[in-house]
Design brief:
This protein is mainly beta. The protein contains 8 helices and 47 strands. The chain is 12% helix and 32% strand.
């Protein structure tokens, strides 16, 4: 982002009138089809900038680093972890320019040791790293261009004999070079065409020198208008550098911001009350030339924070256009400068607050609106498409490079009418614009890459902390976008059939500030070599450690948590080895990832010729535990449907072993916790109706049919309770493949359709509940297409299907699970984990992978 003169990027309010009147026919200028000049497929990249190489030094108040043993996490590592949690795959690491604007540059002097640390962090978390020379004026003289090239390629006293590229060209494949942040033409007197040509020549010299030394990394070149240009916004496609690359690895970039002063008539404080802007006056909004006539408008007022009747405006006080002339800020009034005040804030006139009446109508005008945001976003998107299309038109040949816009955001100048102020703040209009840009960029085919600004510990935005705009509740968590990262690797189990092939089993959850996933691995446990119960845990969903619990287990154990403890039920033996007991255990969860286990107890004693299979467990509101199971006489075979519960909180005694159905079938179960200790069990056969029973007042009620006669469940169903006496059921109908939802308060409602999942005869899908927003999420694994899709919503309001993750090596033998409920990270955010198995495309190994959604 530009500093100083960049605040003057887009001066002319007249351009706004043209942009607001954009017709749909504008779309016709975009050539088709989409094509790229790159000789190798461009990676799809998304993430954030703002962190500096200087931020790689450890933060002594942070958690332990996962990258550097014995150290605390640096601000840089913390931002990368946060980005990973939010589904990004790229971080932009910046340093101050060496050849121009060196004095007092807060981006920090380049230090190769810090870049080494940044590379190590990016490599550990499998992130792309954009190395950003955060300067502007390096192209203004031949001497500064020469200095700039030497800094990158050597010799240079700071960057060494071979420069940055020479030292790091073989260090990490996922480095992207950003040779210059924003080339600045102000003060040169050059036209746009001349300056863009000069920038093209400078960038071409950099690319040629880079390829000559044998470097093969991707390179970003920047549109001149990212800092400042004279062209109207609809012609910014003319300001992309025209370059060539023998390797075809160039990204074009346009920094996407709205600059508030470009869309309003400028405001000033006429200190000497002479109606002329001069050296005695203060520009409040925009650059105002000396001798500009200043006009009064009695509706321009400031927030009267002190209630002093003689109070006057001073810098820092918000200004509002009092449309209703009520003397108080109300709906319909227009915030004009400073943080938006609360409804009802008192307003006061100061006649020295005046404006530049550009259109001579005697009234202060503002084009700062959602409609403007929508139109500008469309224009910027068309600019990108015009460049990508690679059309030639006279003297402006495009080369069709792919896009990676290395900056953008909701910052809209220091005087913008912010909802939240500061470098990581936003206004309603700038947030609308950046959401529009995400919609266009994410919806393009292929997708356009983008990095936003700022995610960093240095911002002055209240409560942004070390994460800037991606801190909890900040604007970076308010935008809707498609994730860029599919998953992180948890473990490589050597057993294909995982417990969460029955995804209602509770294999994963978030508790005690950590993620936990239970899985099966063939190893040493219970004094033999067997299928052993393991768990993996992570404080951030990125770096995982695994532990062997030390017990053998059947293929369908079940887990549950109450937030402080984990509970498991397992069959004591391999599935198919008949005659084992059904065991139960409780463990205290520790914030460091350890579990303090209590002694096991037997739920069902060993019975010759039988296996307790397909376990499903839930903890009641009183702490009583219920376990449903079927008794089988062969591996994975049919049996009767049963449910048993503990004697209150005495887990050494189990009672009321109840036969739900005396029909041999492949019964499956999902339990829902209701209020006052009640429990509801759903149960269903391989192919048949969904059934249920309520446990209340110490007894199981009569069997209830959840689904209509003549319908059948396909594979999976889920029961949920949300803290009251209502049961919610989600299942897939066998013939139609519809995902259905119904509820029970006394009796079952007619089902409503969530969507359709083409799961074939072996469905792989899972469901979760988000108590923060009282919504459900369904994730289904299309193992034919190697995709994970999501439906989410609530009764009567289900969203469209969204593609969430790309997988690899999937087959019908894979499994997917999710947290039964999203869990609270803090007072304002929850997290929901999704995990599945796949095959690594290179080694063929089984991978257990994980992705999470931050919910705010």
């Amino acid at each position: 982002m530009g500093r100083g003169p960049a605040e003057r990027r887009y001066k002319s309010i007249r351009a706004v009138v043209v942009l607001v009147s954009l017709a749909l026919s504008t779309l016709l200028v975009v050539p088709a089809p989409y094509k790229v000049h790159a000789s190798s497929p461009a990676p799809v990249l998304g993430g954030w900038g703002g962190v500096r190489l200087a931020d790689t030094d450890q933060n002594l108040s942070a958690p332990p680093s996962l990258v550097f043993a014995g150290e605390k996490q640096s601000g840089f590592e913390q931002v990368v972890i946060r980005e990973a949690q939010l589904g990004y795959n790229t971080v932009r690491g910046s340093f101050a320019p060496y050849c121009a604007q060196r004095a007092n540059n807060f981006m920090g002097t380049y230090n190769s040791s810090q870049l080494v640390r940044a590379v190590n962090i990016a490599q550990f978390y499998d992130f792309w790293l954009t190395v950003d020379y955060h300067g502007h004026n390096e192209f203004q003289t031949n001497d500064s261009i020469s200095c700039w090239l030497n800094f990158w390629f050597g010799p240079n006293p700071f960057s060494g004999p071979t420069g940055i590229v020479g030292q790091f060209q073989n260090s990490y494949d996922k480095i992207i070079w950003e040779p210059l942040n924003e080339p600045n033409m102000t003060g040169t007197g050059a036209t746009d065409a001349v300056w863009t040509s000069s920038s093209s020549i400078a960038f071409q010299k950099w690319i040629n020198q880079d390829r000559t030394v044998g470097d093969t990394h991707w390179i970003v070149v920047q549109n001149t208008c990212s800092y400042f240009c004279h062209n109207p916004r609809s012609l910014w496609y003319l300001d992309y550098p025209v370059v060539n690359d023998t390797l075809g690895r160039v990204f074009e970039s346009l920094h996407t911001y709205l600059y508030y002063p470009s869309f309003v008539e400028h405001l000033a404080y006429d200190n000497d009350s002479n109606g002329i802007f001069d050296s005695a006056d203060t520009a409040i909004v925009g650059d105002i030339p000396d001798a500009t006539v200043l006009t009064t408008d009695p509706k321009i007022k400031f927030v009267n924070a002190t209630n002093d009747p003689v109070e006057t405006w001073a810098p820092g006080k918000s200004i509002v256009y009092d449309n209703n002339s009520t003397g108080a800020y109300e709906t319909g009034d227009i915030p004009a400068a400073g943080t938006v005040p609360p409804i009802g804030a008192l307003l006061r006139t100061d006649p020295k607050i005046r404006f530049t009446d550009t259109n001579k109508n005697g009234v202060w005008d503002s084009y700062w609106s959602n409609a403007t945001a929508d139109n500008i976003a469309q224009t910027d998107y068309l600019t990108m498409l015009t460049e990508i299309a690679g059309q030639s038109s006279g003297s402006t040949p495009g080369l069709g490079w792919p896009m990676l816009n290395t900056e953008g955001g909701a910052f809209c100048s220091i005087v913008c009418p912010y909802v939240v102020p500061g470098a990581a703040g936003y206004s309603t209009v700038s947030l609308r614009y950046i959401q529009d840009m995400v919609r266009y960029e994410d919806g393009n085919n292929p997708r356009l890459g983008w990095l936003f600004w700022p995610a960093a510990p240095w911002t002055d935005t209240p409560n942004a902390g070390g994460y800037g705009a991606i801190g909890a509740g900040e604007w970076g968590t308010k935008i809707a976008y498609k994730k860029f990262t599919s998953f992180v690797l948890v473990s490589t189990p050597n057993v294909r059939a995982q417990p969460f092939v029955y995804p209602w089993d509770g294999s994963g959850f978030y508790a005690q500030g950590r993620h936990w996933i239970f899985y099966i691995n063939y190893g040493n446990c219970s004094g033999t070599t067997a299928n052993c119960l393991y768990y993996a845990t992570s404080p951030n969903g990125v770096g995982w450690t695994s532990t062997n619990v030390g017990v053998v287990t059947g293929s369908r154990p079940s887990m549950a948590t109450n937030g402080t403890h984990v509970f498991y039920a397992r069959y004591d033996g391999h599935s198919g080895n008949l005659g084992g007991a059904l065991m139960f255990r409780v463990g205290a969860l520790n914030a460091d990832g350890r579990i303090n286990w209590q002694a096991e107890t037997a739920v069902k004693e060993a019975t010759p010729g039988q296996e307790w299979y397909g376990l499903s467990m839930r903890i009641g509101t009183t702490g009583q535990v219920f376990v449903a199971y079927r008794n089988v006489t062969s591996k994975g075979g049919g049996g009767f449907a049963w449910v048993i519960h503990s004697n209150g909180n005495d887990y050494s005694t189990w009672e009321q072993d109840t036969l739900l159905r005396n029909l041999t079938d492949g019964w499956r179960f999902s339990l829902a916790r209701l209020s006052s200790g009640q429990m509801y069990v759903l149960y269903w056969p391989d192919v048949g109706r969904l059934l249920g029973r309520l446990w209340s007042d110490g007894a199981w009620g009569p069997e209830e049919a959840v689904t209509a006669s003549g319908t059948a469940v396909r594979g999976s169903a889920f029961a949920f309770g949300t803290g009251n006496n209502t049961v919610y059921a989600i299942w897939q109908e066998n013939l139609t493949e519809k995902l259905l939802f119904a509820s029970r308060t006394g009796s079952w409602s007619a089902p409503e359709t969530i969507g359709t999942a083409e799961t074939n005869i072996n469905p792989r899908w899972t469901a979760s509940y988000d108590p923060l927003h009282e919504k459900w999420s369904l994730f289904y694994y299309n193992y034919t297409l190697n995709r994970v899709y999501q439906y989410s919503g609530a009764p009567g309001s289900w969203g469209q299907r969204t593609e969430m993750y790309s997988t690899q090596g999937a087959s019908s033998g894979m499994s997917i699970g999710s947290y039964y409920e999203a869990s609270g990270v803090d007072a304002s955010s929850h997290v929901l984990g999704v995990f599945w198995t796949q095959n690594d495309s290179t080694s063929g190994r089984i991978e257990l992978v994980f992705a999470d959604e931050a919910i705010t």
